[in-house]
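Office hours follow-up: a student asked to see two folded examples consecutively, so here they are.
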Amino acid sequence: MKLTLAYWILFAAFFLPVICAGIAKAGRRDYNNATPRDWEGRLEGFRARAVAAMNNTYEALPFFAAAVIIAHQLAAPQARLDLLASIWLALRLLYVGAYVGNLAAVRSLIWMASVAVIIWIFLLA
């Protein structure tokens, strides 16, 4: 079995939290890898929101992964699965941008749309 576009998108999605962590840490010299949670607790503004986006992304990944894997196992239409996985990834990137940019209402709408896409993926099969 070859890796489909949806599987590659799933693989890429695992790097979303790393992007968020990079946003939080970029340009900071006071990061202490020995006590990263203490450092995170002192963050403010966009850096704190980047950590919150990272945590939410970790929370969303299992549901997306399960949906993609189950859809593959049940032979969902591949083109539609690939499209929905692409839409989910785009929404999650927008979500991170909205979270870091302090656009709370927009962020919530994007979150709801990304959850709807996961449900849609489950319903494909």
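And the second, which I mentioned at the end of office hours:
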Amino acid sequence: MNYEELMEKAVEASKNSYSPYSKFAVGACVITDSGKIYTGCNFENSSFGMTICAERNAIGSAVADGERKIKAVAIYSPNQDNCAPCGACRQVIHEFCDNDADVDIILKNKDELRVITLASLLPESFNL
């Protein structure tokens, strides 16, 4: 699956967002090393701290299916061009990769895709 197709799935996932408080819909699509695809959308909670980001939702689905290595993550929001993952999501993505430089983060700016590495978003990351 190419990055345009991953982004299309992220766009579709964003349509299922449950974001009544922020009105900030986000969809994500993850591809694992095995080639499996998982999507997720953000869903909010009135206590805000319990809100789940689209990226973590998609990664959680992959983990629940036994996957442990992420190859790329496409992220889309109709509210913002180049909607990058928050700090918590960056750390979760890092948890499920061998090398930050090997994980592509795919963002969308109007009709163009922008591909950056996790290493550029999370410099000097850590693992236990």
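Two things to take away from it. The beta strands are 27-32, 37-41, 70-76, 104-109, 112-117. The longest strand covers residues 70-76.
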